[in-house]
Write a structure and sequence with these properties.
- This protein has 441 residues and is α/β, with parallel strands linked by helices.
- The strands form 2 sheets. Strands 5, 6, 7, 8, 9, 10, 11 and 12 form an 8-stranded mixed β-sheet that branches.
- Specifically methylates the cytosine at position 967 (m5C967) of 16S rRNA.
Length: 441
């Protein structure tokens, strides 16, 4: 590694995430760009940051059992990131991990704090092989050791049963695969596999995706727009539309940012025109940058709030995509900080927002057209319950069975796609396809 203090950078990133509610992936990229880090430094920081976030509850429980009284938030961050290294990063000697944590504490918070941190960590290190941790019962032991908040665990248990809930919780701490989607406007899938060599494998989740042993965004093929980083499950949305790709359609994406699905749909439905909407201009600019990079000429971006009716859009689109904002339970593997924000109240509020969006968007669909609803969550209130409510209140729409080509994903009996995070080693996802029929008198 270079002379850059990677632990101090890891600490700064974790402070932003835990104290400012920043997103892990965005914050990591911000600091990587700020410090112009080498790949080895990036890997170390990513391991410390993601490992500490994923195991936060368990690390805090260890600290609680080995300290007396309340530990200040910034001190706690230094200690738990050191505990993570002691437990899971055995390539670095324990004395070096503790020494670095003490140095960091003294530099940022003073000598007294440094001495406190030294005492706590040395006590924990002495007992690493037999941590004396207290739990109320076996269930508390499970969700604390897997760092899953009790309320999220209760939600999953209520909806999926105890056994499946525990399997889902365990999957949150696993690593997702490095998934990319090839750009058919620049290269064939076979040619890209040939260029990437042994690093690339075909996905059995989505026919347009590839899996990489190692993801390198400095790769020239990525920079030149031959592929884009996108999870396999997310890439299924374009495939789930299931219409004739050679036909010319008017397509609307109502909640497009960050734009992966819009870009996929536009490249797949190459004869069609697509309007990609978001209410935030800065997010639309990100989509525009990728449009240019991928050389897609059939997308236009449009500033539009998905909850507000645009009269110019009414009855104007053959295909409408509602990839609505959601709680994000399905992407916890990649954004582990999400699991600490989930509450019943939050899910109920976001499910109401989702329903408002789909209710508003239905008017944009032509008779005979398709409305695709998708989320990257697995809470039933945000998914099938919203769809069932919509169908009960809109008799001119019917649920249509999704058909996937070259995919091992099983379509549900009701025709929807429901991927749980422990099913296929990809993100959790939900997709429903609705067809607008002639309204009966």
């Amino acid at each position: 590694m270079s002379n850059i203090n990677t632990r101090k950078i890891s600490y700064e990133i974790l402070c932003d995430i835990f104290q400012e509610d920043a997103y892990s992936n965005i914050t990591l990229n911000k600091y990587f760009n700020k410090y112009k880090l080498e790949e080895q430094d990036k890997r170390f920081i990513s391991e410390v940051v993601y490992g500490t976030i994923k195991n936060k509850m368990y690390l805090e429980h260890i600290l609680k059992n080995y300290s007396k009284g309340r530990v200040k938030p910034k001190v706690k961050i230094i200690i738990i990131m050191a505990i993570y290294q002691l437990l899971y990063m055995d390539k670095t000697p324990s004395f070096a991990i503790i020494d670095e944590a003490v140095k960091l504490s003294k530099k940022i918070l003073g000598n007294i704090t440094g001495n406190f941190v030294n005492g706590i960590l040395r006590n924990i290190e002495r007992n690493l092989n037999d941590l004396a941790l207290k739990y109320k019962n076996k269930e508390e032991k499970f969700y604390i050791e897997n760092s899953c908040p009790e309320e999220l665990y209760s939600i999953l248990k209520r909806q999926y049963g105890k056994e499946k809930a525990q399997s889902i919780v365990k999957s949150f701490n696993s690593k997702s695969k490095n998934s990319i989607r090839y750009n058919p406007l620049k290269i064939s899938k076979e040619s890209l596999v040939e260029k990437l060599g042994s690093n690339a494998l075909s996905s059995d989740i989505c026919e347009d995706s590839l899996l990489l042993n190692k993801l390198d965004i400095n790769n020239k093929y990525f920079k030149e727009g031959y592929y884009i980083v996108q999870d396999e499950a997310s890439s299924l949305v374009a495939c789930a539309i299931g219409e004739n790709v050679s036909t010319k359609y008017n397509i609307l994406d109502t909640c497009a940012a960050p734009g992966g699905k819009s870009l996929h749909i536009a490249s797949k439905y190459f004869n069609s025109s697509l309007i990609s909407c978001d209410k935030y201009i800065h997010k639309l600019k990100l989509i525009q940058e990728n449009i240019k990079k991928l050389e897609i000429d059939n997308i236009k971006t449009y500033e539009q709030d998905a909850t507000k009716c645009n009269i110019d859009f009414l009855n104007n689109f053959d295909i409408v995509i509602c990839d609505v904002p959601c709680s994000g339970i399905g992407v916890i593997k990649n954004k582990p900080e999400i699991k600490y924000k989930i509450t019943d109240k939050y899910i109920e509020s976001i499910a109401a927002l989702q329903y408002k969006i789909i209710e508003n968007s239905k008017g944009y669909v032509k008779v005979g057209g398709v409305l695709v609803y998708s989320t990257c969550t697995i809470d039933k209130r945000e998914n099938i319950e919203n769809i069932e409510r919509f169908l009960n209140e809109n008799k001119d729409f019917r649920l249509e069975k999704i058909t996937l080509n070259n995919s091992k994903v099983k379509v549900q009996d009701n025709g929807t796609i429901e991927i749980l995070p422990d099913d296929y080693e990809c993100d959790g996802f939900f997709i429903a396809k609705l067809r607008k029929m002639e309204e009966k008198c």
